[in-house]
Amino acid sequence: MSPLASTTVDLARIQFATTSLYHFLFVPLTLGLAPFVAVMQTLWHRSGEVAWLRLTRFFGTLMLINFAIGVATGLVQEFQFGMNWSVYSKYVGDVFGAPLAIEGLAAFFLESTFLGLWIFGWNRLSPRLHLATIWLAALGTWLSAFFIIVANSWMQRPVGSKVTDGHAELTNVWELLANRFSTWAFIHVILVGVTTAAMVIFGVSCWHMLRGRNVEVFRRAAKLALIVAVPVSALNLALGSHLGVVVTDYQPMKIASTEAQWDTCQPCSFSLFQIGGFTKDDPTPSFSIQVPRLLSLLATGSPNGEVQGMNELQAQDEARYGPGSYMPIVRASYWSMRVMAYLGTLVFLVAAAGAFLYRRRRLETTRWFLWLGVVSIAFPYLAALAGWVLSEVGRQPWIVWGLLKTADANSPSVGAWTIGTSLAVFGVLYAMLGVVDFVLMRRYARVDPPEVGGEGGEVAVPAVSY
After folding, report:
1. Per-residue pLDDT, 6
2. What DSSP designation does 409 have?
3. Block means of pLDDT (10 residues each) for the chain, length 466 residues?
4. Residue 180: which H helix or E strand, with range?
């Protein structure tokens, strides 16, 4: 068995993977919870019903905790580009830096500025202006996600640029922003965020209904979450399938690795589960459950489509780029894809069952399902993490597809001791932040929604007509 990290490149990869995956734990909830809070405040603004104001303040608190710790964990990544990946930064800086600069100088400031106005604007701004601040903050979160996805998608499919004197130069900013890869990836990430927020709201509502407190208030939240979760999770499953077609067009090796497909096939079956078959020395699984033609459908959009195998793709890449292995870690690609797909399907099934029980007026009395709702909070998080593992691990050995290999992109002057020490420090720091986040989120998710509008209330209930 090979060691987990045998070179400085391996250590740098582990460090960036650790910080990226940890940071991404906070991203989906921010993307989804901000518009949910905006909708709740809008419903209060239009109806004057105090329950919606209480829910706005309740879930707004969770959103702010998540946002604050997400920002703290995300800053580390920016520094790693220049410190651990200096060759990469020099190679892609003229292209990669543009969307990241726009994200930091425009989208993030839009998000943080209006979020600050929303926090401190209660009873200071007019009701309509205060409502506008949360919608603008939500828009800022989505714009931030867009520009980050644009940068990442350029690594997946370099467009709008050319390589001059050993580094990439931006030639067409509109082609960069309209990258087909980023368009579908952005929609997919936004739907993941909305689904995550919906399941968090539903799970927290289930917890309060189990306690028998504020049932009428959290029934509204559960209804709103289910109204969104059912169609959005179903749409995301369909869009994820189409994203497979997009990936096949530009990264056929990634698609082949998700199925451990060593030889070209037409039509191709999809294995629901298999044992073995993940290495070139052992390409045939000892056990496999196959669904005929499903891989062809997922990869090409046609049940009769051809999917190139890793052996053929490896030969093509060697002829084009020179000797070396161009296969990712097959086992990681295979299982991350299935964790993502299976948990995404499970989220839809839970949401659909919840909607059925709600319609039959049995949701709050079906205790086993309420407990399932609480547990299901974890499902979209795990699915999202698996999706990022698939996206990044499946791209290897490229850090920029077809242009720059990961093994050639690290900082040559940064030694293993330095990276190992900083990795240990980050591990301890992130563990502490994780404890803080869990304690705060758990504490404020378990309390009763704040009483408002009465004597000593935090916010006055506005008149319905203004």
Report:
1. 58
2. S
3. 61 82 84 92 89 91 86 74 80 80 77 87 87 91 88 86 83 86 89 93 91 86 93 88 81 87 85 84 83 83 84 89 88 90 92 91 88 92 89 87 85 80 83 84 83 49 36
4. helix 180-211
**Is the Cβ–Cβ distance between 251 and 397 less than 8 Å?**
no
Kindly report the pTM of this predicted structure: 0.87
Which residue in this structure is represented by tokens 């990795």? 423
Which residues, 6+ apart, have CB-to-CB distance to 362 below 8 Å?
none
Phi-psi region of 48 (alpha: psi -120 to 50; beta: other; left: phi over 0): left
Six-digit token pair at 61? 């608190």
Q: Which of 317, 321, 315, 340 is nearest to 263 (CA)?
A: 315
CB count in 10 Å sphere of residue 460: 13
Question: What φ, ψ does residue 273 adopt, rounded to 5°?
Answer: -160, 140
Q: Which of 397, 449, 460, 388 is nearest to 122 (CA)?
A: 460
What's residue 37's pLDDT?
93
SS (H, E, C) 48-89: CCHHHHHHHHHHHHHHHHHHHHHHHHHHHHHHHHHHHCHHHH
Under 8 Å between Cβ of 405 and 398: yes
The neighbouring-strand residues paired with 168 are 163
